[in-house]
Amino acid sequence: MSLIIGRLLRYSVLIVAATASFWFSPAPLTDDEYCGTYLHLSSFAGFTANCDGFEYMESARYPARLLQPRAVRQSRPLYVLLGSAVGYPLSWAVQGLRAGGVLPAAVVAKLPAKYRPLLGFYIGYVLLNFGVLLGALLLFRHLYYRLTAGRGQPLVLGALLVFMVSNQVTKAFFWTVHQQMFTFLVPLALLWLALQLRARPRWRAALPALAVAGGLLALLYGSFVLVLPVLLYGLWLLRREKTWLDLLSRALLLAGLFALPTLLWILLLHLRGVSYYNHEAEAYQQLVWLRGLWQQPLPAFLARAGANFARFAATLPAILPFLAAALVAGGALRQSAPAGRTELGGLLVLLTGFLAALGYYQARLTFMLVPLLLLVVALALALRLPDRRAGGLLLAAALSWHVWQMVSYGPFS
User: Transmembrane residues, as ranges (predicted)?
Assistant: First the structure.
């Protein structure tokens, strides 16, 4: 127990220290460079409150907003309800601190007017960011030692964790209300699930229950939709025990159970006289542009697909150091077959295909590949460079990376 508590404390200090240092990064020069409000902590420190955050907080304050026509967060109701569950107790705590004089009114008065009644919800969502990122670090540690069969070095792990907490995603989104910390948790959770399905027969027996759980997670954050293909991989592992007809019927059952939570949510909205609205699909054409394959002439669809894939490729320079390191590491792994290599490689292909087909391309989304790319590097270092020099060099590179992130200009949203 003391080991777990110590680990939680160390990782918490790492997260807070790394992300708080971004307060002292260069401030935006113009309002056109970000979406939201730049909150000045002092004359030389501050951070951006993202423009999406206000809708998250208002929806958490009044969850009934989710039942209104074309509610922006209607496709992610569980995250809003989670914000309510955390935000209301914190709002009451803030009110108590203000009434007791512990939180001076002058401090609250410095906030933009629209944020003042939402301070508790703001704090709650930042704590959710912290919890999600902390969970990602803990899961990364587990996968690191699992994939390296216990041969990983703590120094290498520490260096890789620095890359996880210091990057353009945490810099722009940790201290604001947003869901971008799932960028790190989702790919690691998918890998962990794939490894569990391969190693634990009882997990394959629980595929229907996992499908329902995955469907609920998709109402928390959209990228959890990738749980379904991972579950279908678990079903494929049963191919020697089942007939192809049985596998097909089970696959259809899993797809139906996975869709069930969303269908029930849509039914609830329908009973309220509201049509389901998915803001990401409507505003950004996420994935729905693929319907053009059968809705328009093939040359026109191919032209659009080429343009979209080019836009996706334009986001890859943001992760180029990780991509290059993983490509070199992958070459070193070709002659070996460490446990989990198939699942790790398969998920990299799945995530890349998903991001390329998304239809909305931002570097922060492409960062979903980074946790898995870091694990490829970790695996190569454990198998090919087990001496301590590799850990020291990697840690020096990670700290240099963090300094660069801290002193560089942007991003702000």
Answer: 119-140, 152-169, 175-195, 207-235, 247-268, 312-332, 344-361, 367-385, 392-412
Say if pTM beats, i.e. exceeds, 0.90: yes
Q: From 147, 157, 177, select the one nearest 339 (Cα to Cα).
A: 147
For the four alpha carbons of 321, 323, 324 and 329, in that order, the dihedral sign comes to: positive
**CB neighbours of 98 closer than 8 A, spacing ≥ 6?**
105, 108
Predicted confidence at residue 1, as pLDDT, reads: 74
Q: ∠27-159-369 over CA atoms, to 5°?
A: 75
The token duo for 253 is: 């059952």
pLDDT under 50 in the chain at which residues?
none
Give the C-alpha separation, 24 to 44, whole Å: 6
